[in-house]
Amino acid sequence: MMEKIVFALITVMIIFLLPPLLDGISRKVKAKIQYRVGASIFQTYYDLQSLLNMEPILPTERLAFRIAPYIAFASALAAALLLPFGSFVPVAFTGDFFVFLYVLAMFSVAMMIAGFSVNNSYTNAGANREMMLILSIEPVLGVAIGVFALNAHSLSIGGIPLNITFTPSLILAYVLLAYAVYVEGGFIPFDIAEAETEILEGPLCEYSGRLLGMFKWAMLIKRLALLWLFVSFLVLPIMKNIIDITTFTGGLATLAVQLIVLFIIYSIIAIIEASNARLRIDQAIRQNTRVFLAGLVVLLIAALGW
Amino acid sequence: MGEVVKMKELFTLAVILYFASMLVALIFKKNYKLSISLGHAFTALASLSLLGFTINAIPLALQGKAIDIVYNIGVAKIPFHIDGLSLILCFVLGALGLATSVYSPKYMEFYEKLGKGWLYIILYSTFVLSMILIVTVSNLFWFLFLWEVMTFASYVLIIWESEEEYVRKAGWKYFVTMHITSTLPLVIAVALLYAKVGSVDGLNFANLASLKLSPIFYVLFLIGFGSKAGVVPIHFWLPDAHPAAPSNVSALMSGVMIKVAVYGLIRTTCFILKPDVTFGYIVAVLGTITLTVGTLYALKQTDAKRLLAYHSVGQMGYIWLGVGVGIIFIAKGGAYAAFGAIALAAGLFHLVNHALFKGLLFLSAGSILYRTHSRDLNSLGGLAKLMPFTAIFTLIAAMSIAGEPPFNGFMSKWMIYQSTFLSGNGLLVFLGVMALFISAATLASFIKFYTTAFGGEPTKLTQDVKEVSSSMLIAKGFLASLCLLLGLVPALILPLLLSPGSALTDANLTSWITTKYWLVMIKAPSMPLNAESYFNPLLFVAVFGVMFLGVFASFPVNKKLDEPWTTGEPVKMENYKLKAKHYYLPFEDYIRGLYHSGDELSKFGNAVKDALVYAYLSVAKTLHRWAAKLSGAVTGIGKWYVSSVKEVYLDETALSPAIKAIKASAVVIEELDSLNMLFTVTLIVLALMLALMLL
Prior knowledge:
The complex is a heterodimer. By secondary structure, chain A is mainly alpha-helical. Chain A is built from 11 helices and no strands. Chain A is globular and about 55 Å long. By secondary structure, chain B is mainly alpha-helical. Among the domains of chain B are: 278 residues, no CATH class; 105 residues. Helices cover 72% and strands 3% of the residues of chain B. Chain B starts with a helix and ends with a helix.
């Protein structure tokens, strides 16, 4: 019982408080690469704090616009709570990959409905791009899940990492999953929907104050959920051979490794972000389609049992 | 035993009430509103009694038993055999029938200038009743007869606004396509079977199931039912036909009629013929092609009802995919038999769900049409402010069809994903990947549908619009709550959905699927321990709700309003929003090659259809002459049949034989009898021709 409480506390800290810090670190890394001093790694906390204290001004009476940030926040949280922290899953209302994806997708759904519900071409354009980006990346994600399912005979987020056997197609599936996670996370060059310097942050353009703060925080939690999923897929299969992850110490050790890998991956992402420019939406669609076609080859290899 | 008798009475009561509604409509034929309201009062009661029957009969079906009823109509005895599969469709017909009956009286005021309310009620009742009887009757001859009644009634309902040219064209396309691609293969199948068994009684399902039948029947049933279901490549009639009808009828056509075709497919190819692996693959692959083509075409539609109709094609693909995978694994048997039963249940679950949310969507599109006289998504806008309840119900339906948890569409799609991704078969996994992709396309399309009609600020067209009347809202609210209920507690219906699969396999399903009120858990063969797929929708909603309310309470906002920011440009607000036609243009442009090949395919399909029309017309004329010579029993219906084949426009005189047929029971028997003779003659002639060909 005590052990569960410890894990629950750590998990809550990771889900709520870690994402702004990760963003701060990422900003610092980018600043260093670009020979800037950059803001403090706590800057994102300060940003969120000041936003959350401000009254928003609404551009429309539509209820959808007003509640979208809360929906987005709740869906990012709900999705994050499904993931394994060590061997601890905070709220296991499902163990299933698809439920995770669809719950997380509610973030985008809320953002798009809100973006389309305002008479503003910038928010509309942003929502439009978000949808097309999802359309083009969904098949890639599907192929990755398909290879994992063929390999592990399971669709369970906790079950897949513990039951995979390493084959060439599986390693390629990891690559596909990493790519899909990166695109879904909206990192540069795929920050097409929220293109800040181009269409004024797209769907978020009309948001201000508290509501904008909610959305930004939710976005960071969504990124954490996506990356944590990938990190778990990387760490759990290795850790299960080293230590019994169901014990308290084993769980803690696994969680520590997950955190370390998360920091490493976030820094790598910052480097990729700093050295890339945003793609146009048609370029992104084309590139994602190419990845999908390559993914089909991977699926074929997996179907043949390699 | 007593209970079974009571249940039979409920079923019969529903049938009688449908006939009563026609009678009532005839009695008050002078008064448009009265005939429709009273008629629909009876159809609502009939739907209630059908629902009552269904709920009462479910426990029997779960024990693997069925209810047998025989109606003696003098000239013939019509047998009915109602098992789990039939009850699934009875539930859909009852629920959607109830919703449209409550919705229609007010909605049909829209069509008051066309008059003939009594005729509408007669056709409506005939249409729904024929479907109820199709899914319960247990003789292939009567099945085919009722199938024709359904096609005919739906045709006349489609051309209700027949002064509009596009409506007449759509109706004609529907009528001809159905006769060539649906009725004809089924008539050939029945004729071949008739030649084998030698009597109408021999066409009983139980008797047919005991025969050894050739694989040709799979092909005939696939074409016959596939075209009615709108499966690619014979889907081109559907996006024209469904939107042409009044919205309440569109709801029934997209909600139930195409599902009756799925019923027919399963009934004939799984229960009469044996489940077959190759056939299963064909159904699953056709389903995947259909869901891809239908939905990607839907993505670029800007006409509300046409968009919905294209999605009917797309969602039908999901149903076929589930059913196809089910057939594959049921046929394989062994360790995978239970997995097949679950896949079949997934397809049937989507069938039920699609009926509910697509019915609701058509009723919503009807409400918009009723108030704004427009279904053009480019000119609508801001309706959420003016029609708040319709907006909420539409959003529920849109999220259901897009497969967002916790709505019903998610549960059935989730089960379809399970049955494809866990199949251990590369091809089926690929089909699952396509289903996942198209689910995103469905989401895109319905975000467009919702936000163009309901989002933004009211436009010139919509600024004076009011919410629709309470009866229309009740009907939609009923369907919306069913969408939510079946998503939250799928266990309410899953046991019934699993019953056809368990009837087809000997496998014990309880060790493979757990359906509790709070949990659905699925296991697949060779799945490792503790790696099962499970989902607890109620817990999800609780967690989500607590967090939503938590942040909502922690970070409240005041309603401080201001104009959207135009970066200083003097833009008029109505020009500052994306129109429906502008949505997703780069993506549509990217897949234009697919659209192009789809168009070519449609052209090809149309050309084949036209060629067949020509052949069909000559055959029909020859046959008709033969029939006249043989029996001299050519009645008005026969004449009408040939004359209407030439005429696109159907006026009241042309309809009169059909109306006469229903006017009085004496006439009914007389007309049915002559129709029977004509029919029988046709069957025998066809059977002889084909027997000669085969020899």
